[in-house]
Design goal:
Blueprint lengths: L6 E4 L9 H15 L4 H7 L5 H12 L5 H16 L10 H11 L2 E5 L4 H10 L8 E3 L12 H10 L6 E5 L2 H9 L3 E4 L8 H6 L2 E2 L3 H12 L2
Parallel strand pairs: 1-2, 1-4, 2-3, 4-5, 5-6
Helix pairs in contact: 1-2, 1-4, 5-10
Length: 222
């Protein structure tokens, strides 16, 4: 019997696009230029959180006089110069999973900590924006992941209950947020390996989105 599943909510960075690694690479360029220590650890601490929370974490690590905004702008320019215009690599299985969800008639949303303007442009450049009925950026909610607000807003705008929705995430904060919102978290790890906490919070942990597709097919078409 088909389970009561009505929607799937995707994270973007590290799930749709192989972008988290690239952001860290761009931060490394800035860090080398300005002798910023332990930049990879700083970036990993910020996986899944919005811009406001990221800045707070950087200032906590490097001090309140750390010129975060200037460094972030420089990093962003490197990133966008290299990867805008459809050059951002997609993760394995993105289109196949989106096509399958469309065929099943499930509602699809995106809930990313990245600013909504950037999210929409990147999805458009990749030619996949039309698969998403709802797009929520990190600037559209007050509280960042690991709080559940962004997932709850996505479900609300889709018109579905969180318990009827899967959330596909790669980051610890994203899985925590999905679980806190009572969605069904599916983890596809990117930069950080699954921990016992992630195994406990996630309904399943998968290597690629193709594996997620196989899992959903077994649930939706037993």
């Amino acid at each position: 019997m088909r389970e009561e599943v009505k929607a799937v909510v995707f994270d973007m960075d590290g799930i749709i696009f192989d972008s988290e690694r690239l952001v860290i690479d761009c931060w490394k360029v800035v860090a080398e230029k300005y002798a910023i220590p332990n930049i990879e650890a700083a970036c990993n601490e910020c996986l899944g959180v919005n811009g406001v929370e990221t800045k707070e974490k950087f200032l906590k690590r490097y001090g309140q006089d750390f010129p975060y905004d200037a460094y972030k702008d420089e990093m962003s320019k490197i990133y966008h110069d290299n990867y805008d215009g459809g050059r951002l690599p997609m993760k394995i299985g993105v289109v196949e999973l989106l096509q399958y969800l469309e065929e099943c008639g499930l509602k699809v949303a995106l809930a990313s900590s990245t600013r909504s303007e950037v999210v929409i442009q990147q999805l458009k450049d990749a030619g996949i924006l039309d698969y998403f009925q709802v797009v929520i950026g990190g600037d559209m909610v007050t509280r960042s992941k690991p709080q559940p607000d962004i997932f709850l807003k996505a479900c609300e705008e889709l018109g579905v209950a969180p318990t009827e929705s899967f959330a596909i995430e790669d980051s610890y904060n994203g899985i925590r947020a999905a679980a806190a919102g009572r969605l069904r978290p599916l983890m596809v790890p990117d930069l950080m390996p699954p921990t016992p906490e992630m195994q406990e919070l996630s309904e399943g942990i998968f290597e690629t989105l193709l594996d997620v597709k196989g899992y959903l097919k077994a649930i939706l078409n037993p």
